Amino acid sequence: MFNNLVNLLAEANQSVSVATGEAAAATTTTAAAGTADQAAAAAAGTGSLISTVVMMVAMVAIFYFLLIRPQRKKDKQVKDMLSALKVGDRICTIGGLYGTIAALKDDTVTLTMGSLQNTIVIARWAIRSVENVALENDAEPQI
Asked: Is the C-alpha dihedral spanning 38, 40, 41, 46 positive or negative?
């Protein structure tokens, strides 16, 4: 079985060498025409390569200016807002709860909410926004 495989490989090698010899003869007859074609193909290949590189750079620039840069700007605004919190600020949490900051610690915020001044402790990152308008029902308890 191994001998059969070796014989098949030897026959395939001989047929390939005969085919390449015929191709070499055909190539020498058209060498002058082939160099012009090769030069044109090389120029087209270089132009194709340059246009591909330009398109890739353009795609990276589009992704940067439309996705990455605005997200970084938004993250910076949120970080600045969270670092500027102070006692007495009116905030909205990511859960939709409105309250007034009663105390601040490193990573936690104590809020007072509603007319009964209930207090809750939330994480600082859970604050969505600082509200500029005071709510009417938060002023004083109505009994």
From this structure: positive
Residues 6 or more apart in contact with residue 130 via CB below 8 angstroms: 81, 85, 89, 90, 91
pLDDT tens for 28-54 read 444 445 565 666 566 667 778 999 999
Using CB atoms within 10 A of its CB, is residue 85 exposed (0-12), middle (13-18) or buried (19+)? middle
Give the C-alpha separation, 3 to 17, whole Å: 21
Which of 87, 93, 138 has its CA nearest to residue 116? 138
Closest residue by Cα to residue 80 from 72, 88, 70: 72
CA distance 86 to 50: 55
Query: Token pair of 133, please?
Result: 């308008």
Residue the block writes with tokens 């900051």:
101
**pLDDT tens sequence across 83-130:** 999 999 999 999 999 999 999 999 999 999 998 999 999 999 999 999
